[in-house]
């Protein structure tokens, strides 16, 4: 398996961390940075708990200052410079395309979604504390800002897979040996002068082919301490929203005031089923297909083209597809042309499919 494949598996790994191997990686990372090993290593159940623990220990003054720059940033910069100098710009670009570039977008999507979830959880906890203390409303935003600062101290462990894939096994990458060991065996972590905080890996992770969090019947990402994120094709949704999907009706879809959630409902319910059960009538048909339009309150109209595949399935039937097209579409042919990036006059297929 190539480097991209190995690190794709690391990034998607779920289940208990190998604590002994991860802790040895932490100690090695400190030593390679010229630092004394941390006096203690604290394990937490998720990045949310990690951020909360880091904030608490910093407030108590028991963690010491952040050493992320020494442990992670400087070694990364030094190794990158060595590898780039050795390979040269052209060979480096080719190497990156075969390694880190293949994971980059997916890792960015995942790590940013986790950051957002941690920030939202921190802001929510701040709001609850303010309500109990009867203090002035508005400092929840301050709570979110504090969490953002704590997250700047984090090393992403397995979710640093993109750039680690590019340097793993490269000549001159020895300063990253500790970082690599932690990433292979644990989740996010926080290196401080006297204390290192390590997070467990997720227990569940569901993503679509584009690398977006995606699940219709439970959390798309879940950690052992209960921190969980719910999403449908990358769009964050409330946990309770998913329980409604099994019992959707056209009326419930129309009643949904949140346009983004309504789109999720439509995708889950199926455009064809919604059109059929809502009593919709086609607005135009031609040799390319049938154009349907449904007006939705507070949102742009839903316009789809019904097309039939000209190639039969193994059982002899012909599969029907529903293509979402812009609301301005006036003919089925124009809509199908749009899906190919063409104007209607330019769309001259040799064979309709």
Q: How does this structure look, described?
A:
There is one protein chain. This protein is of the alpha+beta class and 353 residues long. It folds into three domains: 3-201, no CATH class; 203-237, no CATH class; 248-346, no CATH class. The protein is built from 14 helices and twelve strands. It has helices at 3-12, 19-32, 47-60, 68-87, 89-98, 101-133, 140-151, 161-167, 177-185, 239-244, 250-255, 259-269, 271-277, 332-339, and strands at 40-44, 189-191, 195-199, 204-205, 221-222, 228-229, 231-232, 235-236, 282-286, 289-294, 302-308, 320-325. The strands form four sheets. A four-stranded antiparallel sheet has the order 9-10-11-12, sandwiched between helices. Helix 1 (3-12) packs antiparallel against helix 8 and helix 2 (19-32) runs antiparallel to helix 9 (177-185). The chain is elongated and about 75 Å long.
Q: How far is the N terminus from the C terminus? A: 37 Å
In total, the number of domains comes to 3
Share of helix among residues?
Answer: 40-55%
Rounded radius of gyration (Å)? 25 Å
| Discrete helix count | 14
Structural class: alpha+beta
Mind summarizing the main beta sheet? 4 strands, antiparallel
Adjacency order of strands in the biggest sheet: 9-10-11-12
Shape: elongated
Secondary-structure element series: HHEHHHHHHHEEEEEEEHHHHEEEEH
- What is the oligomeric state here? single chain
**Beta-strand residue fraction:** 5-15%
Task: Please state the average pLDDT score.
Answer: 89
């Amino acid at each position: 398996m190539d480097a991209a494949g190995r690190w794709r598996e690391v990034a998607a790994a779920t289940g208990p961390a190998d604590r002994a191997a991860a802790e040895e990686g932490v100690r090695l990372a400190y030593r390679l940075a010229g630092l004394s090993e941390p006096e203690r290593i604290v394990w937490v159940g998720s990045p949310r708990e990690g951020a909360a623990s880091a904030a608490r220990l910093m407030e108590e003054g028991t963690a010491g200052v952040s050493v992320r720059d020494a442990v992670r940033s400087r070694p990364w910069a030094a190794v990158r410079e060595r590898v780039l100098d050795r390979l040269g710009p052209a060979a480096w670009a080719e190497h990156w395309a075969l390694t880190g570039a293949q994971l980059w977008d997916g890792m960015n999507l995942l790590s940013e979604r986790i950051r957002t979830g941690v920030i939202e959880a921190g802001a929510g906890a701040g709001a609850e504390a303010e309500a109990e203390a009867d203090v002035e409303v508005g400092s929840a935003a301050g709570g979110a800002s504090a969490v953002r600062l704590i997250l700047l101290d984090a090393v992403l462990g397995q979710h640093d897979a993109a750039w680690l894939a590019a340097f793993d096994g490269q000549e001159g990458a020895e300063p990253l040996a500790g970082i690599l060991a932690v990433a292979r065996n644990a989740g996010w972590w926080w290196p401080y002068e006297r204390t290192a905080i390590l997070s467990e890996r997720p227990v569940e992770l569901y993503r679509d082919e584009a690398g977006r969090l995606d699940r219709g019947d439970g959390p798309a990402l879940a950690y052992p301490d209960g921190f969980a994120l719910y999403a449908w094709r990358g769009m964050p949704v409330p946990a309770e929203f998913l329980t409604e999907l099994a019992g959707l009706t056209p009326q419930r879809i129309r009643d949904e005031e949140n346009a983004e959630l309504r789109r999720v409902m439509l995708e889950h319910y199926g455009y064809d089923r919604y059109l059929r059960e809502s009593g919709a009538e086609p607005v135009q048909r031609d040799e390319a297909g049938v154009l349907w339009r449904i007006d939705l309150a507070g949102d742009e109209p839903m316009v789809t083209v019904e097309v039939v595949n000209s190639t039969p399935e193994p059982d002899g039937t012909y599969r029907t597809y529903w293509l979402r097209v812009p609301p301005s579409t006036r003919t089925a042919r124009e809509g199908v042309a749009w899906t190919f990036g063409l104007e209607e006059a330019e769309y001259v297929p040799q064979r309709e499919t």
